[in-house]
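Same chain as my last thread, 140 residues:
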Amino acid sequence: MSQALVVACSRHVQLDELHEMTKSHFGAQVHAYEDEFQVRVCDGYVRISLLGDDAEVAEDYAANEDLDAAFRAEARDKTYVYVVFNDFELVKSVMAVLLRGLGDELPSCWIDTDYGWVMRGAAFLQHLEQDIEWDWRHKA
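reply #2:
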């Protein structure tokens, strides 16, 4: 069963940049398609694409009063990257590579966990690096 995350990052970040970051780490396991790329390992996959019209997506996020107010305030200045996966361990590895690769853009990045809450990208990466058991699907 597929699950998803949304990475809200600076408008400067492009899908081809994310593809190159991922390819430099995962090599031949990365496959590019017209509007997305995928990391495939055995039966596991992580598909990465742009979510859609940034303005429309941003309006939905900005209007969602259940989300962090700081995120809602920044929502209109983001590019939204859709991360669909069926392998939890694989997506943790892919997310760590992508977030590390954002460098100076990381502090302005947010992750929508698809479980009703968002968190800053730097905090997400810190959890990934410090706790191999961490699961964002369960808010602490």
